[in-house]
Amino acid sequence: MIDRTGLAEFLRNRREALQPEDVGMLRGRRRRTKGLRREEVAALCHMSTDYYSRLEQERGPQPSHQMLASIAQGLHLSLDERDHLFRLAGHNPPARGSVSEHVSPGLLRILDRLEDTPAEVVTELGETLRQSPMGVALTGDTTRFTGPERSIGYRWFTDPGSRLLYAPEEHGFLSRMYASGLRQILTLRGPDSQAAHLAELLLERSEEFRRVWEEHEVGVRPHDVKHFVHPEVGALELHCQRLIDPGQSHSLLVYTAVPGSESHEKLRLLSVIGAQALG
């Protein structure tokens, strides 16, 4: 059963504890609000201000799992806080660990500060959970996929268009890398895991995957330098740094170019193109 009073108090408390700079927003000179405004939180949670306001006013319908997950991310809640939110709203909390899609506040704070840098938070199966604006400009919105297509490894073997963003000379290596990574995750998580399900689907649907899978390779690690072929700025040579959250099996991937290089200048151009697209 929903605890409307407790839910409203908890939401107000967390909203007032957050500052604009905590969530990647600019603080206006005349700002007098304690913490974030309701409309700012609503925007972070991808919901209407009216819907969010009614929750703080102890009104409105019982929030769904999806709404609560959005609120938990928008308010940068820890796992314990997220679970508390779900219980206040009358729901059982989602699972933790490798299957969790709740991005930790620490990774979100870093991502919020990377607006001008391509970056993304991904699961161990290569499912994009969050992207920076420049991350979207580089690879497109990869959070839009559903079902098995959410995994970049699955798309690699089933959607030829997914390969257009990567230099052709890298394709053979990337096929080996995705198959190797999936095999290691399957071994770690077991035969009833999502990794096992993806492997079964790919064995049915991709001849190339079957061929690479039979090699039984493990330990094929990503290269530090990735070669992209962007449809508007052309070839890009980007270094990829990875920050891992072991508790959630999530990684923050950050792509940078050597200062003064041609790729660095192309990233600057891409930031202008991306800003115009958002505008």
Notes on the protein architecture:
The chain has 279 residues and is of the alpha+beta class. The chain folds into 2 domains: 4-94, 434 Repressor (Amino-terminal Domain) (Orthogonal Bundle), CATH 1.10.260.40; 105-278, Beta-Lactamase. It is 45% helix and 12% strand. It contains 12 helices and 5 strands. It has helices spanning 4-17, 38-44, 49-56, 65-74, 79-88, 105-112, 133-139, 152-158, 171-189, 194-205, 207-213, 262-278; strands at 119-122, 128-131, 225-230, 234-245, 250-256. Strands 2-1-5-4-3 form a 5-stranded antiparallel β-sheet. A hairpin with a 4-residue loop joins strand 4 and strand 5 (250-256). It is globular and about 60 Å long. The N and C termini lie far apart (43 Å).
Structure summarized in a few sentences:
Helix content is 45%, strand content 12%.
Question: Which characteristics define this entry?
Answer:
alpha+beta; 434 Repressor (Amino-terminal Domain); Beta-Lactamase; 2 domains; five-stranded antiparallel beta sheet; globular; Lambda_DNA-bd_dom_sf; MLTR_LBD; Helix-turn-helix domain-containing protein
